[in-house]
Amino acid sequence: MTARTLQREANAYITAVRTALRDVPANERESAVRDVEANLADVIVDLAEDAHAGSLHDRLGTPDQYAAELRESAGYGPAPVPFTERLWGREVRWTNVILCTGIIAFAYGLYWAVTEFHTHAFWRTPEPLLDDPLYSMGPAVVTLAGAIFLAWAVKRGLPRSLSSWLSRDNLPTPVATIRRYAFWVLRGWSAIFTLDYLILGEGRLARWVSPGAGPVVPTEDPFVYLTHWALAIPLATAVTLSIVVGPSERSLGDWRIFPVIFNAILVFWVPLAWYFHFI
Amino acid sequence: MDPTQLLKGVLDLAVLAILRDGDGYGYDVLRRLHLAGLDAVADASVYGTLRRLSKAGLLTSYVRPSNEGPHRRYYRLTKLGKDQLLASAKTWKAFADAMNDLIGEAV
Asked: What is the ipTM of this complex?
């Protein structure tokens, strides 16, 4: 395992331990996390020297196990029991309610933004969108509200299974690497198509970036970017940005919920919507 | 018998004994414990124990830069820590003697 891969794994690990200790007073928690950083730096040196040493998880256990041991030995007391209440005869975990509200609002806000701007771009609405506060501010307000609920859920602590899924970093096998790069390419492509055709409309960005491309037939064909070398410039830029940003998303820990939803909209919903013509 | 359960009861004493031989940072204390034969000690347990003993006044700490990453926090036994080490060592020896007498014929 390369030092870079290990460092990325360590960043995700530290974030996950910090999350698991979220109930510990901030000063004490950050001081403890600095110890974890020092510990992981030493472990990485050991692992990098030994080709058969395995991953951080093999060596230290999961971040939750590490945090539980640290909590017990440092005398922080047990982790708080999730706040639940009985509602209509069923036990409700409020963090899950907040999380679900956040996911729905954030995803719907993004969806609404794309469809709203698409309608405007497609029909070339004569009045500027800002004239109608509902249509101009609606998507922004819903997305922002969703983001606030998501941030609230992250601060309270996401469900353990979701948290460990967000922090996991698969071993860099060739298949996993190819899959990851394919995803980033698709995301970049979908992003530029969404921005250029569905939001701005008629490939305005492509024509602005690449005036030498000649007249671009108004179309909603994502493959138009492959028809002329100059149109490949915005595509290449978006794909490059997507690939550059990609690796750092793993180190966000629970905050990775934001790019995950954003990616889901961009990589799954937009192509599906385009294919079935429901936007 | 699970050695990790046994270790929980004596890790404070083991850490104090390690630091009696010289100041050390977390990973260094862990290595010295492993070298002493206590392989089952986990990283997080050592770091947490050092923090708790330090808060209890048994250890003091100071920070030194490291070439291999973040600054390292070194720990040193205080007078209180040395007294605690002595008292805990006596308790342990009495306990170990009693246990050895008890199981002596079984092995």
From this structure: 0.89
